[in-house]
Amino acid sequence: MAKSASSMNISRIALIMAAVLALGAVAVQIYRSMNGDSGANAVASGTDSEQAPSVDEVIAGLEKKLQENPDDAESWRMLGWSYFETGKFAESATAMKRTTTLDPDNPEYWSMLGEALVMASDGQQVPPDAAEAFRNALKHDAKDPRARYFLAVQKDIAGNHKGAIEDWFALLEDTPADAPYAADIRRVIGQVAENEGIDVAARLAKAAPAAPTGGISTDGPAVATAAIPGPSREEMKEAAALPPGQQEAMIANMVDGLDKRLQSNPKDANGWIMLIRSRMQLGQTVQAKQAFQRGLDAFKNDGAEAKRIREAAAALGV
To answer: 20 to 30 A Cα–Cα from 239, which one of 18, 218, 233, 273?
Structure first.
């Protein structure tokens, strides 16, 4: 059955707003790993913002390192992640293809390749090469969340909405309660179900996520980001009715509106975390860093809230 324009737009919004699943690296951590320094204390203290390298500096360092050792799969992964963070999705895909050649049994490399290929496409589909990469990821790790998420998106785009929703529910059941993308999965299920006239309200209410991952404190970055909502159902529905170019404009306007609200009401830690997250999802890494610093400035006399903002920014790759 052909997919309606409205349904295609809903799926496109799901692709645009999808969290980057299971990516744990941040630029400063990559930089320090390249130089053999964990830097854990400095990252935790949040006092190293002036010394932290830019993503461009990380990329330059990795490119130099790979000239000397072109068979270092992990450095290719770091380079692919860095390209992804700067919106260079085709370059990210090229780097990730190299990692899968060097280490074809690593599921994370395959799923990262798949996501880069999705973002490098026209933004309205999960292209065949991306789907193949995701399937390869699942061959080595049947629980890989990123691969499962995007293969469900592919089902939805193809018109198999019920199958996609079932896959997302299965993913939600395996998702730790403190995972930063748990709320995103719930939101996508609710939005697609509402658009297709599928009743999932009771099931969503009963859906119990997996137990929290061990070793993460209640103030940790995953918890800090998990509770921060994205666009509401109404906003998603309104955006989905627009042509693709206007969709991006509406999303950008929502984010800019949040930014303006925080200018007049800066004592909103959740708002700052949501702004940082939204900027990162739109590929606006410079603005995300600026929002991070403004949020810290707003709570310079409130250590607990500043810590939440700092940890959330780290989880989001800022």
So the answer is: 273
Q: List pLDDT tens digits, range 13-64.
A: 455 444 433 333 233 333 334 444 433 333 333 334 444 456 677 788 888 8
Tell whether 129 is covered by a domain: no
Distance of CA 46 to CAs 190, 273, 314, Å?
37, 16, 10
- What is the domain count for the chain? 1
Q: Which two tokens stand for residue 261?
A: 């609200």
